[in-house]
Amino acid sequence: MSGRQGTFTEQDASAALELLAPQPDGAEAYRAAFPQAGPEELVEAVYSDALFRMPSQKLAEANAATGGTSYLFELRWTAPALGGALGACHSLDVPLAFGTLDSPVGVQLIGGEPTPEAVALSHEIKEAWIRFVSTGDAGWAAYRPDQQLTRVLDAESETLPYPEQASRRIWEGCCPAPFDLP
Question: Kindly report the CA angle at 81 between 155 and 104, in degrees rounded to 5?
Fold first, then answer.
């Protein structure tokens, strides 16, 4: 949405991997794990992993280690606006979870007239959140390190072992570092 889509260079990918991937060998590990990925895909993968996926997974692992219960999900459904160019982008879960498909963000990401698929997915997410708040159970199996179950939210949602195994292996034994903000 910042106008960069389709413009990332190999130099951009190298900079993102050096900045965000676990050190000392994370950049090489990403290139080995995703050999067909171009600069855009590498930037997206390492950025998504460092900011969202790996902190969530590490938190679920730590919580499980102390006897806590966590429910992981990954939104895989593609935002239909802009011909699907945004994919399952950051903040797409907000209008879906709150049922605000007609809000400015909802319209920007989902479009002016939500599809039946969007309405059904919104209902599923809302019900899971309400169930979790009310009972402590999201409606799918809790995350356990030996099974790594994660709810993959899509047109046809399913509960699977953690879907980003290549990234999980890259980050094994490493923790995402906090960002140094000015």
Answer: 105
The reported pLDDT for the residue numbered 1 is 45
Backbone angles phi, psi at 18, to 5 degrees: -65, -35
Task: Determine the distance from the C-alpha atom of residue 42 to the mean position of all C-alpha atoms in its chain, rounded to a whole number.
Answer: 15
CA distance 125 to 57: 19
Within 10 angstroms of residue 67's Cβ, the number of other Cβ atoms is: 6
C-beta of residue 168 within 8 angstroms of C-beta of residue 176: no
Give the model's confidence band at 178: pLDDT under 50 very low, under 70 low, under 90 confident, else very high.
confident
Query: With contact defined as beta carbons under 8 Å apart, do 143 and 60 qualify?
Result: yes
Cis peptide before 24 (omega within 30 of 0): yes
* Distance in angstroms between the alpha carbons of the first and the last residue of the chain: 23
Both tokens of residue 105? 């963000």
Pairing of strands 149-153, 158-161: antiparallel
3-class secondary-structure state, position 47: helix
Please indicate, yes or no, whether the overall pTM of this predicted structure exceeds 0.85.
Answer: yes
